[in-house]
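2024-03-11 09:14:02 INFO worker-7 job=invfold-0412 stage=load source=structure_tokens
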């Protein structure tokens, strides 16, 4: 074998053997977690929890940066264009899997421009109405919506978000016509429902439950398969009048495509340690959130299945954003 070829092969072998050790020294400086949603929502809150715990065990700062806009497109595109070195991560949700079929003109493709790192958690949503709406049950709400089509309106944090798609799925399955009022983030939507400018909203139970308990809104139904331990007195949408209905919000972390596999594996391992921590599980259970522990490959399979699931819902609902 010629000397130049031997030197090339030696360099390749050295790089391959050094890669795991290099990954073990990751991170060497600050890691940024981009949240493409407004501050105060579940992605922001749990992104900061994950970031703080990773900072404690990995010894470098994990900074959360909220970049809302375009139904998650603005912040997500920023991550897609970032260096694939493990120092810029995306805090994503099922907004992203919905957008694969809802928004045809995006500057990225989820499973082409990103790689799965780890899921974080999932939680039910809760359908709430402003107290000025003269209904006390989901059945009464459906009757009102059918008697006065396109009079009631519901807020969401933007097209393609779980709050939006929960509303569209409800419209399709309940056979009602209510008007979608999109906001740039969940905080603005929530504020206007509390203020009565918009009549109703599907919101994360982790965020809205305290307001329902305080009487600021009226909780009519939760969106899981079974009743939530956070609001056990509130029936599910399925048992309250729309059989088979289910919609949740889940969160996860992805990285730009090309990020070295050892870094992905290290992040996945450390995140799963956080998710399996009994204290984290107990704290999240009180908020209505359940950890989701998966390998990167399992999370990838989950993402593909969720994209297919919501493509069917988008088709049924007729929702589209171009």
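2024-03-11 09:14:09 INFO worker-7 stage=emit residues=322
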């Amino acid at each position: 074998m010629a000397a130049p070829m031997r030197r090339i092969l030696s360099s390749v072998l050295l790089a391959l053997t050094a890669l795991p050790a290099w990954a073990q020294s990751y991170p060497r400086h600050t890691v940024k977690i981009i949240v493409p949603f407004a501050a105060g929502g579940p992605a922001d809150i749990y992104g900061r929890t994950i970031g703080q715990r990773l900072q404690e065990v990995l010894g470098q700062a994990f900074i959360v940066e909220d970049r809302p806009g375009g139904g998650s497109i603005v912040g997500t595109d920023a991550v897609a264009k970032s260096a694939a070195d493990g120092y810029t991560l995306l805090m994503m949700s099922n907004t992203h899997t919905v957008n694969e079929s809802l928004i045809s003109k995006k500057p990225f493709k989820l499973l082409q421009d990103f790689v799965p790192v780890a899921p974080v958690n999932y939680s039910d949503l809760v359908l709430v109405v402003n107290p000025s709406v003269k209904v006390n049950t989901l059945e009464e709400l459906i009757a009102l919506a059918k008697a006065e089509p396109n009079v009631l309106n519901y807020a969401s944090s933007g097209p393609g978000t779980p709050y939006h798609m929960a509303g569209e799925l409800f419209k399709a399955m309940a056979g009602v016509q209510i008007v979608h009022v999109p906001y740039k983030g969940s905080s603005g939507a929530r504020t206007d429902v509390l203020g009565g400018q918009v009549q109703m909203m599907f919101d994360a139970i982790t965020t809205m439950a305290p307001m329902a308990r305080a009487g600021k809104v009226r909780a009519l139904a939760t969106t899981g398969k079974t009743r939530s331990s956070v609001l056990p007195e509130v029936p599910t949408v399925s048992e309250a009048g729309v059989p088979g209905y289910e919609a949740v919000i889940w969160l996860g972390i992805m990285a730009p495509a090309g990020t070295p596999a050892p870094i992905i594996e290290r992040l996945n391992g450390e995140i799963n340690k956080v998710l399996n921590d009994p204290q984290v599980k107990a704290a999240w259970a009180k908020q209505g959130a359940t950890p989701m522990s998966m390998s990167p490959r399992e999370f990838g399979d989950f993402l593909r299945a969720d994209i297919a699931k919501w493509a069917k819902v988008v088709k049924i609902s007729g929702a589209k954003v171009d």
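2024-03-11 09:14:09 INFO worker-7 stage=report msg="The chain is about 50% helix and 20% strand."
2024-03-11 09:14:10 INFO worker-7 job finished
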